[in-house]
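User: Structure with flavin-adenine dinucleotide, tokens only please.
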Amino acid sequence: MAQSVDVVVIGGGFAGITAARDLQKRGFKVLVLEARDRLGGRTWSEDRNGFHVELGGTWVHWTQPFVWAEKERYGLEVQETPGCVAERVSIKIDGQVQELQESQLGEFVEGFERFFAEAKGVWERPYDAHHCWDALCERDGLTVADRFNALELTPLQRTSIGGFLEILCMNQPQNASYVEMMRCWSLTGWNYELFNDTAARYKFTKGTGALVEAMARDGGFDVSLNSPVRSVQQSDQGVCVTTESGELVIAKRAVVTVPLNVLHNVAFEPPLSEVKLEASRLKHVGGGYKVFFEVEGDPGAVMTLSRSTDSPLIGSFTYKRGEQHSVLAGFSLEPGALDKSVEEWQVVLEEFIPGVRLLSTFGHDWGADDLSQGSWATYRPGTVARFNDELPRQEGHVFFASGDHAQGWRGFIEGAIASGSRTAVTVADSLSAQAAGASAESVKQPAQA
Ligand SMILES: Cc1cc2nc3c(=O)[nH]c(=O)nc-3n(C[C@H](O)[C@H](O)[C@H](O)COP(=O)(O)OP(=O)(O)OC[C@H]3O[C@@H](n4cnc5c(N)ncnc54)[C@H](O)[C@@H]3O)c2cc1C
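Assistant:
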């Protein structure tokens, strides 16, 4: 027997649960089909080694209006990440680890301002790619490395911007789009302090899981976990969705929120547009590893920065301080970073934080995860103009929402919520228009008869 609902939402990350909540609250019957055994997708709050950590998406900020509104709506608290506003910053420049001096801060910030000097001209309105479309298209083919190489930067600037951008791209500068990095700078008001704070200062005290739970409870939509979707078939009436185990769901509309890098694994009939398929098969390049380091005692509020060419650790900062043991969140582009032994990481970490004693490391391999095949979305050079409008474009009764193709904060929790919210309105409008059309038709029919 097929289950019948108004809207089936495929994928229960933030884009999916936002769309589901907003549609259910508008009076539609909604079912979320989620392949994992939990909601939240690429956010995942877990207790590991006695610490509450975020294995995926973590930091939020008031420069991100949708997620901040959710935080306020549900009365959730945030807490500071000690190492984001560090007492001590260790940077590896030309093979040498140095401590950033207060007198170097101007040079440090000036490097970011020079790198992003064109951002206002490309993303004067960072939620509207078309506002400066020509300027965007002109630079779309450029990599982060192209921009980097065109500037004369000091060694300190090369390492600080290089390391920071490698974290933001989660890939090497030659693989990532320069235009996309400028969007993030514009979204934080072309201001280093806001850029830094948005990246890693505030996290939910009770984890992103608390927001997932609040939204799901408030939404009241139905959820079917462990239900990977195999195919989506459209007809004039709506969609028929089949899960891997052969269950059928009939719905008037589908909202597809699976990550871009795995979208091509779902069979659509009729097939998805060529551009959507191409984008999914090509994949965004957000990869890398978020690695947690459990260390003995309290190392203080520290931050480390390096280029991936100089260290397996491109950046790290104190995540949680404790008297007995503390945790640092780190980022690495080195393949197999999560399999490195404690002894190997001890050598790496000690270079930046002398005397530190590493107890354990942990993390989740989002690149090897079949349901994400990547971390946060970073577009390849030369793809922004082509994919910007096409990825969120509705195809018949099938609608799309994802942090991976949101306007504004693409690649972030914020983008997922914004995209889910916007798609819910479009879906609701289309269902209301269909209902209005049907009732007009039923009034006309007896009159004609
Ligand atoms: C390590 C890491 C760190 C990050 N740090 C931050 C951060 O600090 N701040 C921030 O804002 N963002 C961060 N992000 C990005 C942020 O987590 C994502 O952009 C956001 O969570 C994406 O939400 P989404 O709903 O679009 O996709 P997802 O969360 O990926 O949700 C999609 C869902 O679809 C499911 N799915 C896939 N295939 C199928 C199928 N066939 N059938 C049914 N279900 C399916 C998946 O299991 C998943 O639950 C980070 C991401 C990672 C991985």
